[in-house]
């Protein structure tokens, strides 16, 4: 009769309760959804990038200047989109890792818990609003 009580009440139960596990579970779903979306977008962008490059190689010989200029702009835009998507995907990935490790939701600046309301809007947030504002003030 005592068989499973240790398993059920053991690992994680107490620590999770202090920072409502239900909220974190919701955030995890948000993160997973975001990650999947970004991943799909990223793969699309990679394909588009590839296509642009092939077009460029194929057309290079016959291009006049204006044409190749707009193609370069197009390719630059595609490249920066790629970088943005990769950044965001990494952020979502890191957030999910932190969730697994149990360090998710603590501010990197002051190490206080980040309010769940903020995490629901910005699941990849690694700082609380105050530290974010401080950082931006310092940077700007
Ligand atoms: Zn903070």
Fraction of residues in helix: over 70%
The gross shape turns out to be elongated
Q: Compute the CA-based radius of gyration.
A: 22 Å
- Amino- and carboxy-terminal Cα gap: 63 Å
Largest sheet: none
The proportion of strand residues reads under 5%
Class computed from helices, strands and strand pairing: mainly alpha
Name the helix and strand elements from N-terminus to C-terminus, one letter apiece: HHHHHH
Name the poorly predicted regions.
1-18
Summed over residues and divided by their number, the pLDDT gives a mean of: 81
Could you tell me which ligands this complex binds, including any ions or cofactors?
Answer: zinc ion
The number of helical elements comes to 6
* Secondary structure: number of strands: 0
Description:
The protein has 140 residues and is mostly helical. It has a domain at 20-104. It is built from 6 helices and no strands. The chain has helices at 5-9, 13-18, 21-59, 65-101, 116-121, 129-139. Helix 3 runs antiparallel to helix 4 (65-101). The N and C termini lie far apart (63 Å). It binds zinc ion. Zinc ion is lined by residues 107, 109-110, 112, 127-128, 130-131.
Topology:
Blueprint lengths: L4 H5 L3 H6 L2 H39 L5 H37 L14 H6 L7 H11 L1
Helix pairs in contact: 3-4
